[in-house]
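Problem 12. The chain below contains 197 residues. Write out its predicted structure in token notation.
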Amino acid sequence: MTALRRRFYRPTGTRPLRKLYVIASEGDKTEPQYFDYFRKLEGIALKILPSRDDSSPEAILRKLKAHLRKEKYERPYEAWLVVDMDRWPERQLENAYNWTQNAPGYNYLAVSRPLFEYWLLLHFENAAGVSTKTECCRKLKRYLQNYSKSNFDMAKLIPGIPEAITRAKANDTPPCERWPEHAGTTVYRLVEKLLSS
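Solution.
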């Protein structure tokens, strides 16, 4: 009599699908270091594309588009362009804004005026009266004494993330459609999504 063969059964994984965020930033040090923290969160995957050489909004957008064409990611994913307004005229942001309108729900623009450090400063205070790059960096160094673009203590920023979101939202009232008209940031929109994923 032949023995019956047992069927081998391997259960499929029950791990939830991780949402992918592709972030192309103007900065090649501060922004990648900041967003790298969110890789630790469950439910998301991050691909961070620092600017490297040319950091104009147009160059970063070209880099992001080339990356998306090459990788051919499956939906759902979100592509984010993170830029500053400290040295670029608004007309340079028009193409980036138009790109978001071509694929709403997938393509996003996060802008800080005057620069990304404004978002970092909001982790500690409401940044009232801060409108220039110099003021912003000077105030930030009160909280991060040895701050430099390539080296800062992310652990000091983490507890202030919820307050930074609240402060940025309060400053973005009513919510701007394109980018802040005065000192402000829309980076909170990306961070909120990362936290809720």
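Discussion. Helices lie at 30-36, 57-71, 91-102, 116-121, 133-143, 154-157, 161-171, 187-196. Students who got a different answer should revisit the alignment rule from Section 12.3.
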